[in-house]
């Protein structure tokens, strides 16, 4: 049996990385189904960006998947702990960040896997990156490989279609600068995306959290100007 | 560092199998945290059973985790397709049943994994069984092993505590009769559990769906009487 490789499910947070992988998947000819997650993140503004990015890209379907927040407490991205600001590279790369959310990518990929069986897609795109932000365990290549193995064992499609699942992580070895260069060539409008972890500015970016700093450094490395508005 | 093995997270559907693993985990000395899932199953009565079983067992905490049903369509357990009745063993074991729910155990185990990091438990108990109901891909030993590998790669605890996660599937090679014998010895009150897939009888069991038939056959094999009330 030939596996239908016309459709891809793309995990779309609304940030810079995931907006780039959507463009990459489309450039590779996939008919894209985007899935975003509401997991009680304080920077919920990113979901508005996800909607804009999905609409501009003309995806076939975009769903916002509601996650039960009971299992997501304890992170600076969901709880009462403050998002760290103005950390240097050494601080950012020291261990696992407090913005780590328990088993987040596993929960996201599992939901995407279920949906992919429903829409009959066997190609999942995820914007994980192991270079700039190496602290997250679920952004490493060995993690992505383990999930691909699991996906093919876990599912009806895996059994009946000879392990058809492929987890695509095209950004995994790129620097932020390379990601921005790639997306810019593919026509991504980074002005629609959102990266800031600070929820207090209602969509304006703080410029000081880890995510803003990595983003700004990436644009600088790419020799490009970030189209977003920053608070200072 | 010594891994804290005092607590276990137990996936508790309210059915016969998961009620038995809760008793097994407690018998092994674990302080148990039970997690049940509302995934739009039509036989929602099982969640009431889960509450009763968890309360009787005296678990430390019991949560009902709400899953977004957008990624769960297409199964006889969640959709408009009728639950099959009065199938013989040959029919039941032919391929993957229409009661298959896309990536269900992966979604359940991922949520449980996230919660386990929050409560600081590294032992997850799941009542999968590969003998009586071999049609589900996510009930096979190789699937459980793959998830254990993933759990240790995916998490902060996995990285910082040297792959502490253990996925316990003590029923995986047991017949339904052996499961019932084991649970009975451990004092499980099977009168509190619920197995029937038919939602129309409001908690009374139909006796004809695959789940009821396997249950009844199991009690017969164990030489015991099922305490549940059946419709006929």
Keywords:
homodimer; 232 residues; alpha/beta; Rossmann fold; 5-stranded parallel β-sheet
How is this fold's topology laid out?
The structure is a homodimer of 232-residue chains.
Chain A: E1 7-11, H1 16-27, E2 31-38, H2 45-57, E3 61-66, H3 89-92, H4 104-119, E4 123-125, H5 141-154, H6 156-160, E5 166-168, H7 176-185, H8 210-222
Parallel strand pairs in A: 1-2, 1-4, 2-3, 4-5
Helix pairs in contact in A: 1-2, 1-7, 7-8
Oligomer: homodimer
**Mind telling me the C-alpha Rg of chain A?**
17 Å
Q: What is the CATH C level class of chain A, in words?
A: Alpha Beta
Largest sheet of chain A: 5 strands, parallel
Kindly report the greatest chain-chain contact and the residue count on each side: A-B, 45 and 45 residues
Count of DSSP helices of chain A? 8
Per DSSP, what share of the residues of chain A sits in E-state strands of 2 or more residues?
Answer: 5-15%
CATH homologous superfamily placement of chain A = HUPs
Flag low-confidence runs of chain A. Answer: none
- Which structural class fits the helix and strand makeup of chain A? alpha/beta
**What separation lies between the terminal Cα atoms of chain A?**
57 Å
From the coordinates shown, what is the CATH architecture of chain A? 3-Layer(aba) Sandwich
| CATH fold-level topology of chain A | Rossmann fold
Side by side, the strands of the main sheet of chain A go 3-2-1-4-5
Q: What's the β-strand tally of chain A?
A: 5
């Amino acid at each position: 049996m030939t596996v239908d490789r016309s459709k891809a499910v793309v995990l779309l947070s609304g940030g810079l990385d995931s907006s780039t992988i959507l463009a990459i998947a489309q450039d590779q000819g996939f008919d894209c189904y985007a899935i975003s997650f509401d997991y009680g993140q304080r920077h919920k503004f990113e979901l508005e960006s996800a909607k804009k990015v999905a609409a501009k890209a003309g995806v076939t379907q975009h769903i916002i998947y509601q996650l039960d927040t009971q299992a997501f407490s304890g992170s600076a991205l969901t709880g009462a702990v403050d998002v760290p600001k103005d950390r240097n590279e050494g601080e950012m790369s020291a261990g696992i960040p407090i913005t780590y959310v328990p088993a987040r990518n596993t929960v996201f990929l599992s939901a995407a896997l279920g949906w992919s069986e429903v829409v009959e897609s066997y190609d999942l795109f995820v914007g994980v990156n192991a270079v700039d932000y190496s602290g997250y365990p679920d952004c490493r290549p060995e993690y992505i490989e383990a999930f691909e193995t699991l996906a093919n064992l876990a599912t009806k499609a895996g059994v009946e279609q000879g392990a058809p699942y492929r987890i695509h992580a095209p950004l995994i070895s790129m620097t932020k600068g390379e990601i921005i260069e790639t997306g810019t060539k593919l026509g991504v409008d980074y002005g629609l995306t959102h990266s800031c972890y600070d929820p207090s500015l209602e969509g304006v970016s703080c410029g000081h959290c880890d995510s803003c700093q990595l983003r700004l450094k990436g644009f600088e490395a790419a020799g490009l100007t970030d189209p977003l508005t920053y608070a200072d």
